[in-house]
Amino acid sequence: SAMNAPKGGLVIFTANSNPSCMELGKRISERLGVMLGKVQVYQETNRETRVQIQESVRGKDIFIIQTVSKDVNTAIMELLIMVYACKTSCARSIIGVIPYFPYSKQCKMRKRGSIVSKLLASMMCKAGLNHLITMDLHQKEIQGFFNIPVDNLRASPFLLQYIQEEIPDYRNAVIVAKSPSSAKRAQSFAERLRLGIAVIHGEAQDAESDLVDGRHSPPAVKNIGAIHPSLDIPLLIPKEKPPITVVGDVGGRIAIIVDDIIDDVDSFLAAADTLKERGAYKIYVMATHGILSCHAPRLIEESAIDEVVVTNTIPHEIQKLQCPKIKTVDISMILSEAIRRIHNGESMSYLFRNIGVDD
Fold first, then answer.
1. Is the predicted pLDDT of residue 9 greater than 60, yes or no?
2. What is the rounded distance in angstroms from the CA atom of residue 123 to the CA atom of residue 135?
3. Chain centre distance of CA 142
4. Where are the beta strands (DSSP E) in the chain?
5. Which of 11, 79, 121, 358 has the most neighbouring CB atoms within 10 Å?
């Protein structure tokens, strides 16, 4: 009946004051054929964030697109204030579209640290978020930090398509994990492309001079006073990484390193050098989120890597000007389809077809 029909339409806002971050929002709204909602987001002279929504949101489905720029903390504050503004203006539902979820690397307890992505999830829910759409969370378990539905979309179909269409002779490629922790992702790519995988393990050995100066020797006295005499807690043997080994053959092959985030590029450069030594003749890096901070573009440009392929979950136009090796894959299509399906109450499973548990 007409009474139960969804009221109002959908409104799409971008919660960024940074103009380079508006790009993805514009693409999504163009694909959906709607105008971006009118809103002012800006920093006052005292660096406080102010959000002024300039149209009615009462009873509407609000989608807030937030891409994260260099100034990540401002982006978070903009999002929280925007969500809260919509909540207090009686929006029917507020859905966050946050392609790269910030602080996602801080999702495990470290000694005397904290699980920041859990804190961020709580803040977003508290501000009034009803649903989250994101892409390639650093750890899938972050979904459990929210007490709202989370759709963790995947960029891998777009990256796989790029490999098949843009890498000539990709059948002679091998998918590489630059450390055992990204082996699952590499395995998933390799199985879909029917290619082999290689995993790099260990780290470059230090010069001997470092090892003999006594820094690594155990302390002379074992402080027993602290432990109760009857408690003898066994000491764990400290980890020592073996010298670098490559499990799998890359000789005479194209090496495609896959990962979810590329930010600090040192480990990628080291991996590229190792692969070159083992006879790989071309090296690609594929990652969903190209954060590429600081000197990353210059380092990539000077390195053995032939091409770095990232998606536009994070704006990186400036980095591309510094480094022509960086290529972009557009993922706005899957985000706009997710928005359309949620707004129309359609099933999302189509967007996850062929996605396995371990992907």
1. yes
2. 19
3. 12
4. 10-14, 39-43, 49-53, 61-65, 93-98, 131-135, 150-153, 173-177, 196-201, 245-247, 254-262, 282-290, 307-311, 326-329
5. 79
Cα 69 from Cα 75, distance rounded (Å) = 7
Rounded alpha-carbon distances, angstroms, from residue 350 to 334, 337, 341, 353, 355: 11, 10, 10, 5, 10
Report pTM: 0.88
* Separation between Cα atoms, residue 268 and residue 273, nearest integer Å: 9
Handedness of CA 78, 84, 87, 92 (dihedral sign): positive
Over the stretch 221-258, which tens digit does the pLDDT of each residue have? 555 556 676 778 888 888 888 888 999 999 999 999 99
Instruction: Name 266's Cβ contacts closer than 8 Å, sequence gap at least 6.
Output: 299
**Among the listed residues 70, 130, 94, 149, the one whose alpha carbon sits nearest the alpha carbon of residue 315:** 70
Establish how many alpha carbons lie within 13 A of residue 19's alpha carbon, considering only the half-sphere containing its beta carbon: 1
For 74, phi then psi, to 5°, come to: -65, -45
Nearest to 91 by CA among 5, 4, 7: 7
Tokens, residue 223 = 């402080």
Structure-token pair, residue 150: 């989370």
Please list the residues that pair with 310 across neighbouring strands: 328
Give the dihedral sign, CA 128/131/134/137.
positive
Pair of tokens at residue 271: 């991996």
* Per-residue tokens: 19: 């103009």
What does the pLDDT read at residue 231? 77
Q: What are the structure tokens assigned to 246, written together?
A: 């490559």
Give dist(CA 350, CA 359) in Å, integer.
16
* 306 within 8 A of 326, measured Cβ to Cβ: no
Strands 245-247 and 196-201: antiparallel
Of the candidates 323, 353, 349, 325, the residue with the CA atom closest to the CA atom of residue 338: 349
| Domains defined along the chain, listed by start | 10-153 (3.40.50.2020), 157-202+243-329 (3.40.50.2020)
Residue that has been written with the tokens 């987001």 in this structure: 41
Express each pLDDT in 99-109 by its tens digit.
999 999 999 99
